[in-house]
Amino acid sequence: MSDASVSALNAIKSQVPATTTVIAVTKTVDASNIQPVINAGHRDFGENRVQEAAAKWPALRRPDTRLHLIGPLQSNKAAEAVALFDVIHTLDRPKLAHVLAEEMAKQSRRLPCFVQVNTGLEPQKAGIAPQDADAFIAQCRSEWNLPVVGLMCIPPVNEEPSPHFAFLREIARRNGLDQLSMGMSGDYAVAVLFGATHVRVGSAIFGVRT
Ligand SMILES: *Cc1c(COP(=O)(O)O)cnc(C)c1O
Which of 60, 97, 94 has its CA nearest to residue 82? Predict the structure, then answer.
């Protein structure tokens, strides 16, 4: 079981450029099943809920672990998120930007942030609308001095992902951002073709979530 996760992760790493960060997504995965992947030397892990991460990661993490928040963040959890995580992939609205900036200043921690863009304009999905992305990125920089490093998207489940990846890349390019968090178990190889610098892979490493 654990060996299978390490082998699966190594196979994925061998298929992507060395410069692409493979984030092993550990939501719903028990600490005992994460441990072998940490022992194998992997550093980048993703969780989508602050509470679950707070329960698992303080005991698991090593000094060089990078924990990525890849799920929606409520403003009232920003303080905890800044203390616990190393990278935020889901910055998507002014209120959150404001609170994150305050917390980073308070805690003297500057976490690289990805702005999440709702490329499919799905009403139930988080992310800034594409037409508001340029203004929001500019505001994050000028008003809150946030370390915005790139963009993140989750394409609609039943659509061809490549137009969404191309769209995200274009928004990043015109805003001078060179990091792209896109691609999951089913489409990371396609995402890499479109310039993904970070792929977020869960079930292809740890098996199907129950
Ligand atoms: C769960 C999740 C992933 C990983 O999904 P898999 O299909 O299991 O690889 C990637 N990104 C986000 C935002 C997620 O919530």
Answer: 97
Residue nearest to atom 5 of ligand 1 (CA): 202
Rounded CA-CA distance 102/116 in Å is 20
Instruction: Note the pLDDT tens digit of each residue in 57-73.
Output: 999 999 999 999 999 99
Structural element, H or E, at residue 11:
helix 2-15
For 50, phi and psi rounded to 5 degrees?
-60, -45
DSSP structural state of residue 109: -
pLDDT in tens, 81-97: 999 999 999 999 999 99
Contacts for 58 with CB less than 8 Å, ≥ 6 apart? 84
> Which residue lies with its CA nearest to atom 6 of ligand 1?
202
13 within ligand 1 shell (Cβ under 6 A): no
d(CA 84, CA 125): 24
DSSP 127: S
Say yes or no: CB of residue 25 within 6 Å of ligand 1.
yes
